[in-house]
Write a structure and sequence with these properties.
It holds the Pfam family YkuD. There is one protein chain. The protein is α+β, with helices and mostly antiparallel strands. It has one domain (40-186): L,D-transpeptidase catalytic domain-like (Beta Barrel), CATH 2.40.440. The protein contains four helices and eight strands; from the N terminus they run ααβββββαββαβ. The protein is globular and about 50 Å long.
């Protein structure tokens, strides 16, 4: 067995073992689904992305086709990443079930796909506090004016509540995810 094959086998085994261990947590059913991940196929081999799953604590975004993970990405979140978004300006990323409902190729960030936040429940929650829920929560790339400073964003939570990836990853997501795709954002 050549070195590359051994390394690929080791990484696949390590990934599956880690996901299987995580599957014993309280959100085991969802993690077991993610644990079925195989090596990521070429974009041309991916069918329809049926769901997007974000796991905030892991800083990961998963693209699923049925129950199979076809892509996963390291993400950046809002500056206050823990907890559900409560009101406009809290810098939190919402949690719950939403839909990706609009694509903007000309946003202030490198492409963006809008999350259907706020839901009626989110509106009621914010109104109970006498606040506005906010909106314009997106999956997007880096700021358009980032230039040579793109490296500085890696690994940081820097958004106002959005889900950010690098521009190359945003190109993949843009190509694979259609308007109307459900998105589940988990703690």
């Amino acid at each position: 067995m050549d070195t590359l094959t051994m390394l690929r086998s080791y990484l696949t085994t390590a990934l599956l073992a880690t996901l299987a261990l995580l599957a014993t947590t309280t959100q085991g059913a969802e993690l077991r689904t993610l644990a079925m991940a195989e090596p990521q196929p070429a974009i041309s081999k991916i069918g329809t992305v049926s769901e997007v799953v974000v796991r905030k604590a892991e800083r990961r975004l998963y693209l699923l086709s049925g129950e199979r993970v076809v892509r996963d990405y390291r993400i950046s979140l809002g500056k206050t990443p823990e907890g559900h978004k409560l009101y406009e300006g809290d810098s939190r990323t919402p949690e719950g079930d939403y839909t990706l409902d609009f694509r903007n190729p000309n946003s202030d960030f490198y492409k963006s796909i809008r999350v259907s936040y706020p839901s009626p429940r989110d509106r009621k929650l914010a109104e109970a506090w006498g606040l506005r829920p906010g909106g314009n929560i997106m999956i997007h790339g880096l700021p358009n004016d980032v230039g040579d400073m793109a490296f500085a964003y890696k690994g940081l939570d820097w958004t106002d509540g959005c889900i950010a990836v690098n521009n190359e990853e945003m190109d993949e997501i843009w190509q694979l995810v259609e308007v109307g795709t459900p998105i589940r954002i988990l703690p």
